[in-house]
C-alpha cells in the first residue's frame, strides 16, 4: 500500500531504527517510546489489523520474533509486555498490523 506509513518503512521510503529483519517481518524502535525498550514488530506484507491476519504461520512468526527480540534486548527474563491494539476502541493509530514490545520498566495492570 503506497499510502501506508509502515509499508513505506518496509519499502525503505522512510528510514527506521531497525532492530531485526527477515523475509517476512521488520522490527524497529518506536518513535515515541512508552518504555525504555519499545519496539514495533510488523509483517512486511500489508495487513491492516489483527482482524485481517489470515496466515497462522505469519502470526506465529510475529510472536516468535517478539520473544527473540526480547531476549536480544536483555528483557526476556525480567519480563516484558506485548500489545496489539485493534481498531479505534483498541487504540490503534497506524492501520498496518504491529506488535508492541515494551520492557525495561515495571508494567501496571490493567492497561489503560
Ligand atoms: P498504535 O496506537 O497504532 O498501536 O501504535 C502506533 C505506534 O506507532 C505508536 O506507538 C507510535 O509512537 C508509533 N509510530 C507512529 N509513527 C511512527 C514513525 O514515523 N516511526 C516510528 N518508528 N514509530 C511511529
Ligand atoms: Zn502497510
Which structural traits does this protein have?
single chain, 112 residues, binds zinc ion, 5 strands, alpha+beta, 21% helix
Overview of this protein structure:
The chain has helices at residues 5-10, 56-72; strands at 18-21, 25-29, 37-43, 80-83, 99-103. It is of the alpha+beta class. The chain has a single domain (5-103), classed as HIT family, subunit A, CATH 3.30.428.10. Strands 1-2-3-5-4 form a 5-stranded antiparallel sheet, with helices on one face. A hairpin with a 7-residue loop joins strand 2 and strand 3. The site of guanosine-5'-monophosphate (5GP) has 12 residues, from loops.
Whole-number tally of structural domains: 1
H/E element sequence: HEEEHEE
CATH level 3 topology: HIT family, subunit A
By DSSP, the count of extended strands is 5
Quick overview:
The protein has 112 residues and is α+β, with helices and mostly antiparallel strands. It is built from two helices and five strands.
